[in-house]
Specification:
The protein is of the alpha/beta class. It has helices at residues 16-27, 84-94, and strands spanning 10-13, 30-34, 37-45, 48-55, 75-80, 97-102, 114-118, 124-130. The protein starts with 9 loop residues before the first strand and ends with a strand.
């Protein structure tokens, strides 16, 4: 029998509370300190905890892209295709920095369907269009 577990992706940064608020606003969630751990903030949505943000005073933001064009760990945030432009405006207004936009060949108007950003602490995330509401 497998022991019941849960998991959460945790991002390290020097100041976790503002970064947790950034993701909470971007995802329509809430952010608050983890019970019993003053160095960890949890971003919680309707389905439970979706992301953790932990204090690391020595954190160095990752670089993107790597010289060899290799894939890095990143958040992929799914958004309905017709709302991608609006989601991009929200992300940038909250402090995201655009890094790249990629067209995957599925749209007839050649608009990008995958948009890459750096969050305020420098972590990579992607807004990815999906045909149906996520």
């Amino acid at each position: 029998m497998t022991v019941l577990k849960t998991s959460v992706l945790v991002l390290d940064c020097a100041e976790p509370e503002p970064l947790a608020r950034f993701y909470a606003e971007l995802l329509g969630a809430t952010a608050g300190p983890a019970p019993g751990d003053g160095e960890l903030f949890l971003v919680t949505g309707g389905a439970g905890v979706v992301l953790g943000v932990r204090r690391d005073p020595h954190h160095t933001p990752p670089s993107w892209p790597l010289p060899e064009d290799s894939q890095q760990a990143h958040l992929r945030i799914l958004v309905a295709e017709e709302l991608l432009d609006e989601a991009e405006r929200e992300a940038v207004a909250l402090g995201a920095r655009p890094v790249a936009a990629e067209e995957d060949g599925t749209r007839l108007d050649n608009r990008t369907t995958l948009r890459r950003y750096a969050d305020p602490a420098g972590h990579s995330f992607v807004l990815a269009a999906v045909r149906d509401q996520p």
